[in-house]
Amino acid sequence: MSIYHEGSRRYQDRYDTRRLADRLEERFWARRTIDESDRAFIEGCDMLFIATADGDGRPQCSYKGGEPGFARVLDERTVAFPNYDGNGMFLTAGNALLNRHVGLLFIDFENCPRYIHHYRLVERSRFVPKSECRTPAPTWKTRDWARDALPAGDPALADGAEIVER
Questions:
Q1: Whose CB has fewer CB within 10 Å in the chain, the N or C terminal residue?
Q2: Mean pLDDT of 95-106
Q3: How many CA atoms lie within 13 A of 79 on its CB side?
Q4: Is the pTM of the predicted complex or chain greater than 0.90?
Q5: CB of 64 within 8 A of CB of 81?
Q6: Which residues pair with 73 in a beta bridge?
């Protein structure tokens, strides 16, 4: 089973890239498991992008970030990462329940060989949970339009919660 469909093949034939595309598929896509090199890369990343689609095929892409190692390789076919307190919409998780076709994109912005702009980490988000301190709540959760709709137990509702503007 190829990753290419009729649309991909039409462009490959038009631009004479079918042989190259087949070689790239053979070299990088035909492998269906996560090896040790992949594991080291994935577990060293502090962010990923996840693409999902709902039950009607409408796409959605989200950023997920944390401390390096927040994404873990559980076995040769499984990557897990936490679902941190967010906006409560659960678009990504909900889509994945209905449509198991999910894409994960891990990027090394400092060492990618081509076309990826080089960026450097300035500061990690203070909202990423850490075991050694209490995670602050974002200011938007304390605003009138949101506060009364927060779920029970939301950190923004806790007495003495640290509220932080981004």
A1: N
A2: 95
A3: 23
A4: no
A5: yes
A6: 79
In the sheet that 103-105 helps form, which strands lie side by side, from edge to edge? 59-65, 47-53, 103-105
Residues in the chain: 166
Alpha-carbon torsion (20, 22, 23, 27), positive or negative: positive
45-73 pLDDT, tens per residue?
999 999 999 999 999 999 999 999 999 99
* Complete DSSP assignment for the chain: --S--HHHHHHHHHTT-HHHHHHHIIIIIS--S--HHHHHHHHH-SEEEEEEE-TT--EEEEEEE-STT-SEEEETTEEE----S--S--HHHHHHHH----EEE---TTS-SSSSPP-------TTS-BTTBPPPEEGGGGSHHHHTTSPTT-GGGSTT--EE--
CB 45, CB 71: distance < 8 Å: yes
What is the sign, positive or negative, of the torsion defined by CA atoms of 81, 84, 86, 89?
positive
Q: Give 104-155 pLDDT, tens digit per residue.
A: 999 888 787 778 888 888 888 888 888 888 888 888 888 899 988 999 888 8
